[in-house]
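Much of the work behind modern protein science is quiet bookkeeping, done one molecule at a time. The protein below has been through that process, and both of its lines are reproduced in full.


***
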Amino acid sequence: MSDNDIPDSPGSPFRHERTARDEAPQFVLPLVVRIEKDDPPARTDALETAARAVLVMLADERSLGDGEWAEVMRLWQDARIRKVVRRGRGGEWRKASALPGITVTGEAAEVRVFPPVPLDGWPKELAKLQVSGTDLDDPRPPAPAPADGPVLWLSPDLGMSAGKAMAQAGHGAHLAWWDLPEGERKAWQAAGFPLSVRTAGAGRWRELTASGLPIVRDAGFTEIAPGSCTVVADHPALRR
């Protein structure tokens, strides 16, 4: 699913109203989730793995300084922050995996994240992959999120496909990364970017959206209404 979302902060590249960022070249961060027909991953596993994949890409040495992906990462983040989740299986997955990128694994989920590409310039191996139909289920309710760990809280009021929710979780992780001090970023990376993705209860959601933690709002291009709150990024260091 394609997303372009906003947190509640002035001047953010995720804002939905038109800004100078709209005049910059537009790039998108591609994520491909492996969904084999007979053995799909659990939904929560896929969401958490997608969020971690975004963090791994942001922290990778090739994305920083003079790294080979640094310029395109800068161009991507200087314009609208877009992430698109597609699905692949079998030969499609193998061809996608041959392109430069990083594969991140969860309990069973596999998500490959690629350096940003121009909005209208996708590699053919990725362009032909399906966006729609990324529907996954949890075979059993996920365990409660650890109280002392990072949690990306999903809105209880919105029904999102797995692909849409994966992109939203990626946005939430991205916002947490931006808001953390450098030392906390390094500690999170050293620990392997542990995180949970859970749907908040109605009362908890009201508390979270009033807490001052980073909030993702949807731009309304797909599935849900513009301005909808989709994710609150809750990291222990941000609670302080």
Observations:
- Residues 67 and 208 are 37 Å apart (CA to CA).
- The radius of gyration is 17 Å.
- Helices lie at 43-59, 70-78, 90-97, 124-127, 162-179, 182-190, 202-209, 236-239.
- The chain is about 30% helix and 20% strand.
